Amino acid sequence: MLCTVRDSEPWRALGTLTTGPPSDAPPGTTSSYDPYLNALPGLRPTSRLSGFRESAYAGSRSGRSGLPPRPVSATGPPPG
């Protein structure tokens, strides 16, 4: 169940996420999701623990690409 909450309001359901079996695709061709690089305008992940999460996603990108991590600012992905 995917839920959201706003200050001083109760949690509310947005939808249900259903996953399938693990992919047998070769490494480097699997899909990934990074909410810091793929955020909708005006919709950012919560600021609670965001520094840790941004670092984790940057490290994950680095591990998949072999390139050094690129930090993501609070306003969106870095240019280029």
TrEMBL record:
This is Uncharacterized protein. It comes from Streptomyces fradiae. The lineage of its organism: Bacteria, Bacillati, Actinomycetota, Actinomycetes, Kitasatosporales.
